[in-house]
Every structure is written in structure tokens, then in C-alpha cells.
Amino acid sequence: MAKGFAAVPDERRYVLANATLPAVLVDNFPGEPDGDGLVAADIVVNDGTVERIAPPGDTSGLPALDLDRGMVWPCFVDMHTHLDKGHIWPRRPNPDGTFDGALAAAWADRRASWNATDVATRMDFSLRMAYAHGTSLVRTHVDSDPPQHKISWPVFAEMRERWKGRIDLQGVSIFTIDQFLNADYADEIVETVATHGGILGAVTFMIPELDRAIETIMHRAANRDLDLDFHVDETDDPAARSLLAIADAALRTDFPGEIVAGHCCSLATQPEAEAEATMDRVAEAEIAVVSLPMCNMYLQDRQPRGEAPWTPRWRGVTLVHELAARGVPVAVASDNTRDPFYAYGDLDMLEVFREAVRILHLDHPIAPWPAAVARTPADIVDRPDRGVIAAGLPADLVLFRGRNFTELLARAQSDRTVLRAGKAIDTELPDYRELDELMEWRA
Length: 443
Ligand SMILES: [Zn+2]
Prior knowledge:
Blueprint: E1 13-22, E2 38-46, E3 49-54, E4 64-66, E5 72-74, E6 76-81, H1 99-113, H2 116-133, E7 135-143, H3 148-162, E8 168-174, H4 183-195, E9 203-204, H5 210-223, E10 228-232, H6 242-253, E11 259-263, H7 272-284, E12 288-291, H8 293-299, H9 320-325, E13 330-332, H10 349-360, H11 375-380, E14 397-399, H12 405-410, E15 417-420, E16 423-424, H13 436-439
Parallel strand pairs: 1-4, 6-7, 7-8, 9-10, 10-11, 11-12, 12-13
Antiparallel strand pairs: 1-2, 2-3, 5-14, 14-15, 15-16
Helix pairs in contact: 2-3, 5-6, 6-7
The structure holds zinc ion (ZN).
């Protein structure tokens, strides 16, 4: 059993001494943060709960683990994943790495192989990865094209139950917004999502009846007390303006729930004045935005093989700094994992943060941005008890050897120690060989 670098005292009450904490992830931190937003502290753990966050050296006499300035983070919150698609790459790779290639390959794989056992086995595998890396809450989209919704939603509910206490699992429907114009389908999917305690979500893109479709989904969600989580404008086409349509509809209908907009790639390819006007509306409508930098950089600005040689010119990501400056809550998340939309990924939110820092320039200063993988997504998904270190909350913590951001982000921190309720968990990752049998189902 792998428990990482740290030998945590086997005591009911102990201290994580000489820790370095991102202040933005701590309630009532002691002292003044440095220029990178880091503070030094001792964390007293009692009976699995954070009892106190004290100035370093203030807790002598208790059994202690001296972290020698190693960082401590709260467990991560991964608010945008696709667990039902995960790990199908070996049997259904993306032939050319394009978005169209991904759509076609994922569709074919779903049709051929997504029975309940297949979906459940891959979802469970992914959750084991996320847990071992130190994530405590995962929101997943669930492919809900008929008849898949009847297979996958019960599997999702079973996984949520199986993982209770280790990972809080949230589910969001995903289907193309045009399908919601079909009243029978709309009835059925709203019922399915509501019955399973899910969130209503769809892929929005430019269709002639976009405004009507979005207004309808907002009315239906409001009637059933459902939140909304959309895949928005995942393209470099500046004419993709469904983000503005969502913001306008939210204001027009006075939508009472939470709205999340994922991707929003085309915002970055639109003329400045237009993008600014849209972002003002997004802020006014209190929409939260989640960026998926690894997947966006993989899919966006890629040309099919066989055409002229092509090197990508842009990074594929939305305008996170400009959105954050307007007060829009901005998170980053994993998105796809080893499927036709992204050939890689390990549901490791430290990797997501590391890549996001590089792709999105979330550094110099980095200070507010650790929140984007912890506290901000926790607040967005209405779990303010997650993604934060605070007295009275469970000691669900990730301990790193890295003492500052250059040390933390230069290496993968594969030897991290993950505490759940104050105890070190097994951080051994599941072996891909476990999935080999499923991959032989290749049609
Ligand atoms: Zn997605």
C-alpha cells in the first residue's frame, strides 16, 4: 500500500507542523501571506477533523509530523469530467485528433459497447484514480442520448452510492440542445435527471431556434428546481455565440438556479468589443465558467491529417483572466480522460492545475488561482465545505514535498500523501491492465 512521502502520526490528535498553505484555500489563516499567497502554519488534527490552524511552533507538545515547509492543500474538486467515456481509447482511438473525429469515435463506441457493466467498470476505475490523487468531489457529465440515458443514469446513481464518503459524485446530462426541442425527449430527460438527483445540461451551439431551446430548458429546470451546466461554444468559430444566448436567456427568464458554462472557447476568437460585451452579460447573469485547458489545447486548432502541414496557432482556452476580473467564478477541471476527446489525462487535479498555470498564465502572481481547482468549484457546485482548509471541517488534505510553487509545479508530486479524515489513504493508482478485457470488445 502506497501512502506517499509523509509518515503521519498514528494518533487521534496530532499536528502537521511547519506546513505551507495557499492562503486562498484557508479560512482564518495565521500571519501575512507572501507574494505568492503562501502562509506558514501548523494544522492540528483531532479525531479526523481540523481542530485549529495555528502559527508555526504554536502547537508544541503534540505528536507531530514536521513537513519542513511542504505544502498542504485541501482535497481537490473536479467539477467537469466524463467518467462514462473514460478509458475507451484502446478500443476506439480518435483517428486524427480532431473534434469531429472525437464525436464520431465516441458515438460509435457508445453504440457498440456501453452496457451497464462496461460503463460501471470504467467509471469505478476513474473514481479510484481521482481518489488516489486527492480529489473528494467529482462532477461528471453523463451521455444522455436515447437509449443510453436509461443505461447510464442508473449506473451513475449506483456509483454515487458506492463512493459515498470517499468521493461526492454529481451527474449532469449531456445531449445536443436541438434534441430538447423534441417535447417527448425533453420530458423524458428532465424526469430522468430529476429522479436521479442530477443537474440538467446540454451542448449549446448555433441552431436557428437556439433562444427558444435555451429558454425552454431554463423553464423546465426552474420548474423542477434543477441547476444547469452547459457545454458551450467548444469551437474556434467566432460566430459561435451561444454563451451570450445563455446569459441573455438567464436574465430574461430570471433563472433562479446555478448556471455553469463550460469551455466557451470561441469567446477568445471574437473581436475584443464583442467578447467584452458578452463577458459583462455573463457576469450580470451570475454564470460560472469552467475552463478545460488540457482538452481544449488538444482538440482546438487541429487540422485533419493529410491536408497541408499545420501547427496550432492558439491554445484553445477561454478568457479566464478577463472573466475573473469581472467577478465571474472561474474554475478549471479535467474534462476527458483517455477517450477520443483527449488521449491522456489521469483525473489528477494537480496535473490540471499545473497545465492550467502554463496554458492560461495563471502565474506571477499565482496567488488567487489555487482556488480554481478547489474552493471556487466547490462553491459553484454548492459544496462550500469542500476545497477549503478550515477548523471544524474534515482533515481531507493533500500533503506535498514541494514548498513553493516552483517546486510544486515543476514535478508531478507523485509521492504526495492524501489524508481523508486525518488518515493516510492508499495512493496506488489502478493498473490499466484491469481494463484489458473490456478493450477486447472492440467492434
Ligand atoms: Zn466536457
